[in-house]
Amino acid sequence: MVSIQLAIMVPFLAAIFIPFLYKKLPRIHIGWFVLIVPTALFIALARFIPAVAEGKTFLHTVQWIPSYGIHFTTYVDGLSIIFGLLITGIGSLVILYSIYYLSAKESLHHFYTYLLLFMGAMLGVVFSDNLMVLYVFWELTSISSFLLIAFWYHRKKSRYGAQKALLITFGGGMAMLTSFFMIYLITDTMSVREIISSIDTNHELFIPALILLLIGAFTKSAQYPFHIWLPDAMEAPTPVSAYLHSATMVKAGIYLVARFTPVFGSSEVWFWLVSSIGLITLFWGSFNAVRQIDLKALLAYSTISQLGLIMSLFGIGSIAHQLGVSENSIIYTQASFAALFHLVNHSTFKGALFMVVGIVDHEVGTRDIRRLGGLMAFMPVSFTIALIGSFSMAGLPPFNGFLSKEMFFEAVVNVSQSSIFSVHSLGLLFPIVAWIASVLTFVYCMIIVFKTFLGPYHPEKLEHGAHEAKIGMLVSPIILGSLIVGIFIFPNVLGDYLLRPGLASIFPSFPLDEMTKPISLWHGFNPALFMTIGVVVVGIIIFQIIRRRKSLYFPPSKWTFDQLYNSTLEQMEVRGFRITTLYMTGSLRDYLVYIFLFLIASVGGIFIFTDAFTFDLSNNAPISIYEILIVFAMLTAGIAIIFAKSRITAILLNGVLGYSIALLFVLFRAPDLALTQLVVETVTTALFLLCFYFLPKQEKENSPQKTKRMNLIVSILVGIIFVSVALSVHSGKLFETISAYFENAYELAGANNIVNAILGDFRAFDTMLEVIVLFIGGIGVYTLIKLKARKGDENIENQ
Amino acid sequence: MIEVMLKISLTMFALAIVISLYRIIRGPSIPDRVIAMDMIGVNLISAIAAISILLNTKAYLEVILILGILAFISTIALSKFIERGVIIERKRDR
Asked: Of A507, A728, A733, B16, which one is least surrounded by beta carbons within 10 A?
């Protein structure tokens, strides 16, 4: 059997070769080559079915980053094989469909490269056993989905939809990653199978990990309140919508929930979050779907709603983990079974419906329900498939949707009578909400069929006359349509070979044969059947009412999560800009104030908190009268600079300061320093005078009083801090100086002058770099003066 | 004896510098200030000479020389600046 690692990598490798093939073989539609990949993978995966049906699992490990315990481990069991077959099977059909859907004028190599990337990533998600690898593939699906949604990137709405999908799913992905880290902290392993056996439900990180994981799953699966990206992702080409946004990517969250049910399922929080969010999504999606006028948007909301249904079933199923192996828990495992069943069913009928909508769009030029009608006579095959798909989605008898909807009703009725997790107080809500949502589902399914294919035909509203699609385009929906009927007739083939092993991975510790019942076509007169009859009756009534009185279906479009999302983005930008302009004033003075305040706070704060200030006069040398006089002169000059009225006075006073320092050097017996200081001071003064000529006349400082006071306070504080630091450092001598070594300058370096010996011999490296600094300074000044922009040239400095 | 005299002279020089400083700060016109600056330079030369005698070293003779040159140059530069507004003139019009 083929290694699963290879199966995951094949789409990626194929994606590399697509552009080359596209260049080399421009005559043949590139999709035909791409079609080989998923078909071959489907066959390869299908060969696992018999073994998996017997309960075998396959584990392969390829080391990736062994030091962190990250291995590219794949695990094949019932759950992953269901998803693997869905991905490759529907993938093949979608690629076949897209060959006829996309014309050769589109940039097909981009399309198929993205699609293959997505397929490989999705296979990686479902087969990975390692958390980190799972996350890597998870984000790859987000990225490739982003690329596919924005396939027609010249459209503004495509870009908007892609950005929205990316932001929301990435946000969820981050939450999921955090959750994975927490799980790793709890269990100390990255392998999902080992986590199931070693999870500690009493760990303090258990609940946060659970919630963050669910946020990841909910964002990906478009659950309420994160569902808003899915309708906007409908700007993608229809094959993408059919593949990603109905059959595969949105089910990644479902997969995650199913995969982690053994880990978290015994928790009450898990049950309530998954089932209640699922039910809310179910209701909200179906409620909104009825309002849509665009067929694809309608299908998007119906996808949201159906995903909510599956999610809530998995939530109900998790009760079995709390109950353990017993007679009572069979109704809950049956709920999970229904979830898996509906998952497969939904992929079939939703894929078919999307393809039909794509055909309608392709052949007539619009998807607007108000402009469509009476297409049945022109497109009989599409009509038949749409009828099958919609009735299956509505849950009507001759189709597979009927079976899973019956099982769903059974599950919600059962859970409402349950006593665990204090369900009894809210239990009645489960069947009521489910029933209302089903009625609405029925209504929008009727809209798809009756508004599009029946009723009056308006040729003047359509871009071109209606006619049936090419046969190649119809092949994939026909296959899916026959699958819908086939699954209804032989549900147990699917149930025994795929769903039951899938259930075994959700309930690994359960004896499987006792826990499942076979799917029965007819299960007697039970509440579920009466609920379905009620759905049909009430649904027809509501459909008739809505048809006549459109305004009755009040559209509350003011307070939606779309509005919230948009205003959040807008406000974030506006507020961010405001905050940035608040402190990034562009004024050097303000930045200097920040820097000095930080210095005061950090150095001064440390001084105060550690009580580091020491003042010790005992080691000080005596102070002579000359030193006092010089310091007095410097103080006078220093203070006078601040109050100088003209620049030249300030420059002269600055010179006085410099010369006084030179005199101090003389007094402290540093002749070399005194020499240098004198020369440098003179040059500096001369340079100041040089600049002086170009400066405007000095104006009286007329900044507001508040600014002046601030400046005064900051400067005084900085002065105090530096003086106290210097005094403390001087008072707290820790060890002897190393200057005794340099006193041997004559023996060591043959020099009489210690200072020069240090500069040129002991520490010559510093001197070299100082020379380079002067060199760079010189070159800098030269270039600044010489390399001016000539007249008419652009100003180089401002670039 | 000589030490006391040197110390007295140093004090006098310091006082002279302080007085010149007063002239730099208050000097009603810029030439006043430049002359005061020159005064400080000369006083510094004398003070350093006295100090080097006091410290009994020859290490400061270069300082005295340099200071002499610099005081001269800077006074010239300042005077030229006051008179023409620039220190280093550009070449004549080409």
From this structure: A733
